[in-house]
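Justification of computing resources. Each target in the renewal requires a structure prediction run like the one illustrated here; the chain below, 165 residues long, is used simply to show the kind of job we budget for.
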Amino acid sequence: MEGTTLNHFDSQGRAHMVDVSGKGDTVREAVARGEVFMRPETLNIIAGGTAAKGDVLGVARLAGIMAAKKTQELIPLAHPIPLTSVAVDFRLQPPDRVEIQARVRTTGKTGVEMEALTAASVAALTIYDMCKAVDRAMVIQNIRLVSKSGGKSGEFRREGEEEWE
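Resulting structure tokens:
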């Protein structure tokens, strides 16, 4: 078991932002992934660059990057973090799936797991938004933290997840 307490609650059970002022700055990285399942015809539209709204993956990449930068505005107790790098990448997996990976880095007092998860989620939502005119049955699923490094809690790596190149 990773932890025995929820650190976003004080001793009276009230929500609060965790005080990280006593922590040292370390290089931190988090990788999150997700998937969008769709009809094969929809994947062909994405792959061929023929979506009516334009470059689906290009727009989804930008949306994911922007979302990582705005995580503090979306997640109530997330700290504002100066991000040093955000990369959002995609793998087309015929016949019916787009895999998304978001990698976020910073040097700071707290990790970037929420930023990576937010980037992957918003990239998936953007794919849905751009393709919903042809496929409202798309399914976004399996948003997950794949790895994190840095900080007192050290390394985390989800079993069964290979590195992307």
